[in-house]
Amino acid sequence: MTGDHGAVADPRRRKRVTIADIAERAGVTSGAVSIAVNGKRGVSDATRARILEVAKELHWRPSHAAQTLMGKNAETIGLVLSRPEEVIGEEIFFAKFIAGVQSVLSERGYSLQLQMAADIAAEIAIHENWIADGRVDGVLVLDPRAEDPRLKVLAALGHPTIVVGGETESDTLRSVHVDNAGSMRLIMQHLFDLGHTRIAYVSGDQSFWHTQQRMDAFSAFCIDNGVWGQTIAGNFDPSLAKDATRRLLASPQPPTALVYDSDVMAIAGISTLSGLGVAVPADVSVVSWEDSTTCQVLHPTLTALNRDAVTLGKIAAAEMLQLLAHEPVEHPPVHAAIVHRESTAAPR
Amino acid sequence: MTGDHGAVADPRRRKRVTIADIAERAGVTSGAVSIAVNGKRGVSDATRARILEVAKELHWRPSHAAQTLMGKNAETIGLVLSRPEEVIGEEIFFAKFIAGVQSVLSERGYSLQLQMAADIAAEIAIHENWIADGRVDGVLVLDPRAEDPRLKVLAALGHPTIVVGGETESDTLRSVHVDNAGSMRLIMQHLFDLGHTRIAYVSGDQSFWHTQQRMDAFSAFCIDNGVWGQTIAGNFDPSLAKDATRRLLASPQPPTALVYDSDVMAIAGISTLSGLGVAVPADVSVVSWEDSTTCQVLHPTLTALNRDAVTLGKIAAAEMLQLLAHEPVEHPPVHAAIVHRESTAAPR
DNA sequence: CTGAAAGCGCTTACAG
DNA sequence: CTGAAAGCGCTTACAG
């Protein structure tokens, strides 16, 4: 029982161990300690060993703040996730993508800084803060849009940037290609091979560049193959997907196959169909642009595009390290595949 | 055209504006600048105005590293998310929780640092790094377990911690209460009122403390009300939920109502039931412990426990600010409610 | 190979 | 109210 009643808990109470403490104990200067712990040449092996010994003994850890002040890199990559409400349909994608990013970064001793933003303006503000504070060495940008304001700001600041699903390139900005057109063709070919010639695509948010790419590929396939195709905007709000489904089915010439831009949209669609008494896949086939656990457990199970988001994350991280280090980093290939399940079959 | 051909892009090329630059331009010392920009007393209003003017003109931003070195708080709260694979069923919970946390933190100028960890050991390592680097002022811990190793480490380090769904309290650790027992009673009462007397609970991971609380409340309700209750471990793997569902329905005395610990598990369960030709809710009622968009679009729509995770996040953030500032912060109440949809009805 | 010193950008006593 | 200086914990030329 000491007399510190009323003392407020202070996390900083333990005085920090510094290189000066180590220097004193080891009988050298703090400069020597710095050299030793950083593995630079300038001290004898014996001295270095002794210094490292003392450092370990004292549980020394370098002061991140001091190192940053001296210009050390943050060894951190930033990623801003856009508003949760908007991305619910893509959450599985995000989780996998992040897992891939982290696995590559952590191999190299880098970490990932995540933040959520309510809108694109907030996202830009976060990037500016990160850069000004030197908290990140570079950032990853998802879901690029046409004339994306984020990219303009990042390019103007000259900050290392990787755009996932983009196309532009510069000294400080690289793009990781995402084959939206190819994926759409994969889906369409699958349906076409089954015999479908009236296909509808319930798209996602059209402000995203990838949505436009998908729509273009859809149209192109339809034209080239004589498919009667139709596109309808769905956004990420599942109730829109429901409305779209109803309208499509109410048509005098309803489609025999529906492609939904996300698994959440596909679920909304499939339950709407079941409410309308439309059998899947007997009456209508359904494909989800995103595979998830739910696709596997639903009844019927959903044919889905499996995008390998983990690999995509790995590639994005590798590209970033390459951009920062100016040296090549291994590139795994990303492959999208269509997982054929119960929700697609030949039309009657 | 300068002669910098071959120059490598360097994000730090623009020399940083410091308070010394401001001091020079304003004709004062850097000490005066520091006082002025921090709103402290010690300079005349005129001088302060001039200094702020120059600071804005020069686009000055304080060096985060230097401020941290001087002992400034990070004004950042940390949150580690456990492995994506495990939490898929809780993702909507996470997204909402994080949104709530951020809304309260940003009001006070705090930010949230997120990181994903593969397991609990990795999570502990992240916490230790954060603390050693002074990157966060405190951390939020989710999904406490019995004898949780994370809490031991954090308590030993004396680092401000808020445990969501915990019970322990100390100088540096507070718990936000989550009424798992009450929620379970809500669900059970709903089913009991409908007339169900044979109810099964497909639980989540039993290493989580909240699972134990739910199981205990389940048993207590059954005993008190003469309900024939059964608990079966489901984990977060939906295939386990499927197996559990099959086993329960194969029983000579199958339950008339099933409670699943997450929406993903409930979806797995409901599609298993439909595969077995069991009608919901005609033959069996189903409740999901977690509301989500999917619960609303599924056919039948799912009766679910709506937990108001946004508010829970707000409370956790408010508790943290309170712990750090030693002053009370407004507390919104969290309320869980059961959303009655199509999947529950009276037993035949 | 080692020591002494300057400096990163800020804050904070301490004199005037 | 203002100025000059020390110090936070590190790194890095520069002498010896």
TrEMBL record, chains A, B:
Pfam family, one: LacI
Record-given protein name: DNA-binding LacI/PurR family transcriptional regulator
Keywords for this protein: DNA-binding, Transcription, Transcription regulation
Coiled-coil blocks: none
UniProt KW Transmembrane keyword: no
UniProt KW Iron keyword: no
Domain of life: Bacteria
HTH lacI-type domain: residues covered: 17-71
InterPro entries xrefs: HTH_LacI (IPR000843), LacI/GalR-like_sensor (IPR046335), Lambda_DNA-bd_dom_sf (IPR010982), Peripla_BP_I (IPR028082)
Gene3D superfamilies in UniProt: 3.40.50.2300, lambda repressor-like DNA-binding domains
Transmembrane segment boundaries: none
GO molecular function (one): DNA-binding transcription factor activity
SMART domains: HTH_LACI
